[in-house]
Write the structure tokens for this entry.
Amino acid sequence: MNLDTDWPTSPSSDPFPSGGELVLPVSALNRAIASVLERTFPLAWISGEVSNFTRAASGHWYFSIKDASAQIRCVMFRGRAQYADFLPREGDRIEVRALVTMYEPRGELQLSVEQVRRTGQGRLYEAFLKLKKQLEAEGMFDAERKRPLPAHPRAIGIVTSLAAAALRDVLTTLMRRAPHVPVILYPAPVQGADSAGRLREMVELAGRRAEVDVLIVCRGGGSIEDLWSFNDEALARAIAASPMPVVSGVGHETDFTIADFAADLRAPTPTGAAELVSPQRALLLRELGHHHAQLSRALERGIERRGQQLDWLARRLVSPAERLARQRQHLGQLGARLAGAAARSTQTARARFALLEMRWRRHRPDPAQARLRVDQLAARLEQSFFRGQERRVAQLHQLAMRTELLSPRRTLERGYAAILDPQGHAVRDPAMLQRGKRITVHLAEGSADLGIGDVQPRLDADF
């Protein structure tokens, strides 16, 4: 217990009077008890029988659940009650998932209900889910094994109870939509201890007789206990093994059973199952009339085309004598055309030969003219050769004269000399001359080796 939060601390409500004993206000005590209850008792499922059920204008539910020796008050607030899938009634056996708490203003112990279900529904639903998972793992519910319904069944079978209200709805729908299709009933109880076995036997009987093209397994709505016969594993396997397609129409639109998953098609209601398996007679008659009109128009058009073709063939039909005369005339025309074609071919060949002979004569070579042409070209070639040779000789003389003018010998003949050092290099600067060294002097008429006696560099030069 938290004294700081659960107990009042104002001076007027001091829990410690002058005597030193602890004094608690009622509200603090109830609040502390509620806190202890909520911490001690977690959410749990509690079963009992409904009594004193009241649905307030606010949407809250107030009721009690009891057994043979005790009862406890319950409250289910609107936020939780709106999700319940049924409304409890006086005397119903239910299970509630609730938290133990206290209504502090009156100090009454109560259950704050969060979820409600009919007694046994949880176990049944768990069994339903387990079986569904098992059969689904086996592939019994796969879409690949579902068979399409026949568009025009020869006979329709119904597996249900003779006393079921759903049977009357199914028969009324079939009579309205397809009165021409016979209906075969396979009676079996749809509720009770042996109902699942009887339903399975009827499904197997319909499969052995093979007297219907499609089978309806149906019953009206009810609780999960009422519909439990259709959650039988043997019945589901019999539906899946049926040689003809099976339509399941069990309960209302929100009800699902194992038979719905095992069937080839599930209908939301028994009436919906009857509508799925039966072709509508009015639509069939309308479609038949439409096809009859199309067939009549097609037949009339075919007769008209055949008559027109007959007239055309009659116009083409001639007597054998006239036909022979026409062929004889045609044969004469072909002979004349053949003779004319042969004559024209000969004339064309002769004209072509004359033309080719004329062209050959025009292009025939003339040796005398060709020889004259060759002589002329040879003379021109010889003249061109001599003129070219004369030009090259003249150019050669000019180059020789220019070379002679630029020759060093001409310079030496004018009185100049070329001086070379022992290495054969030309001496251009007096500084390169040293006393005692020998040099080679080249003159116009020869060369001489001289020794250097003295070097007198001169700064003034005549050239």
